[in-house]
Amino acid sequence: MKKKQNGTTWMSSGRLLSMVAGICLVLINPHAWAAIDTYDFADDETRERFHVLTTELRCPKCQNQNLADSNAPIAMDLRKEVYRLLSEGRSDREIKSYLVDRYGEYVLYQPAWSPQTWLLWAAPAILLICAFVVVIFIARRRARAAREISSDTPLSQQEQQRINQLLYTESQEKDKEN
Predict the structure, then answer these.
(1) Cα angle 50-55-57, degrees, rounded to a multiple of 5
(2) DSSP notation for 111-160
(3) Which pTM does this prediction carry?
(4) Are 92 and 49 in contact, with CB atoms under 8 Å apart?
C-alpha cells in the first residue's frame, strides 16, 4: 500500500485489479454455485448402498462418468431417483432393473450376459486369441526364413567367385589405405 500526502493509504492499481479479477472469477465460476446433493439416510448401510449404486450406474448423458461423479442435470435427477427407491425399500437389483427399463443397458457399467451383450463380453477374449495367433504366425514365419538362410546348401561356383572377388578387392583397398 502506498501513502498519500495526507497520510491515508490506498492500494496500488495492480493489486486492486487482481482483487477485482479474483472476485469476478469466484462469482462467474459455475462450480462455486453448484448445489451439493445432501441426503438423509436411515442408516449407514443404506448410505453405503447409495454410494455403491451411484458409482456402478453410468450417467446417460455423459460419455464415461458414473452418477456419483457427474454434474449433468440428468445425473442429479437419477441420484434423487435412486435415493427415492432406496427410501421405499427396494433392492439393488430392483433399482438397477428400473433404471435399465427406463434408460437401457447403457446405464450399467457391467451389463448382464445376454444375447444382445455376448460380443461385448467376448470381445476381449476374442482379441487376445487373435493376437496370440498372429504372434505365433509371425514367429513361425521368421523361424522358417532363418532356417532357409542358414541351410547348409553349398554356394554355386559363380556365387563363390563373386564372394572371393569382393573380399579380395576389399582387402586391397584396406592395404592401400595403410
Answers:
(1) 95
(2) PPP-TTTHHHHHHHHHHHHHHHHHHHHHHHHHHHHHHHHT--PPPPHHHH
(3) 0.49
(4) yes
SS3 101: helix
**Three cell numbers, residue 5:** 500526502
- List the one residue out of 71, 60, 144, 61 whose CA is nearest residue 107: 60
Length of the chain measured in residues: 178
pLDDT tens, per residue, the chain with 178 residues:
555 555 545 556 778 788 888 787 767 766 555 555 677 778 889 889 999 998 888 888 887 888 888 888 888 888 999 999 999 989 989 999 998 888 888 788 776 777 777 787 788 999 999 999 999 999 999 988 877 776 666 778 898 899 888 888 877 777 777 6
* Cell, residue 83: 435415493
